[in-house]
Amino acid sequence: MKFLKAAVVAVALLFVGSFSAVLHADTPPHIVHHHPRRRQVRRRIRRQRRRINRKVRHGKMSAAEGAKLKRNDADIHAEEKDMSAQNGGTITKQDQNTLNQQLNQNNNAIVNH
Predict the structure, then answer these.
(1) CA 87 to CA 108: how far, in whole Å?
(2) pTM of structure
(3) Tens-place pLDDT, residues 5-54
(4) Buried b / exposed e along 9-43 (16+ C-beta atoms within 10 A)
């Protein structure tokens, strides 16, 4: 009897696990937007855009310079989306490092204006 119960439980767990894997395999990349590495990169982009807007508003940066830096952020965001589409909705640690290096370069340009 114990063996039968254990077998039923094992089969049920296999079924639930495989069903869950099937559901997540088809999950579009935009659904997994809450992944911690993606969230960290997007948060940095938002913060940089706010700093750019603030500098333009206070006259510390020209509108043209601000537009160029925002375009850099938009390109990084597009790259993040592409990377996540290739990885099932998440980005790898290496992808995150690459994006952060690009954000660091953009950050330096913001700080130096």
Answers:
(1) 29
(2) 0.70
(3) 666 666 666 655 554 444 455 555 455 567 899 999 999 999 999 999 99
(4) eeeeeeeeeeeeeeeeeeeebeebeebebbeebbe
